[in-house]
Specification:
This protein has a 5-stranded parallel beta sheet, sandwiched between helices. By secondary structure, the chain is α/β, with parallel strands linked by helices. It has a single domain, classed as Rossmann fold (3-Layer(aba) Sandwich). α1 links the parallel β1 (13-17) and β2. The chain has 5 helices and 5 strands.
Length: 142
Amino acid sequence: MEKNMDMVKVGGKILVGWDGSMSSNAALDRATEIAKASKAAMTVLYVYYDPSIAKSDKMIEMTENSEADVGNRVFRDIEMKLSKAGVDYDFRTDEGNDEAKAITRMAEAEDYDLIVVGAGVKRAGSVADRISAGKKVKTLVV
């Protein structure tokens, strides 16, 4: 069996933390391969910031156009790709300023078998590092 393909039981559930970055797109691609091979259901989660909890004027300016709306538009762009792959998928959004907590909270509450996230910027305390540290749900960092 190809590397990582046995991380999810047949018919299992995969949660992908996605933010539109190159590394999260790579995570989405890898999760799609695993979901297809294991006939697993896949959820793509986009966590966006609410301007009312932003800590700087720059963050407020960036979020004025509603990151949730941006995420929903981009979801449509990747929807065709996932449909073509033939995987069972859905999209979700969550509002907050801590992506790692949002991803792990959903994975644990809804009994996901695997979390897949992009490595992102290599720095201490990254989202991928904080999710991996929990170890309650298997995590693949791409």
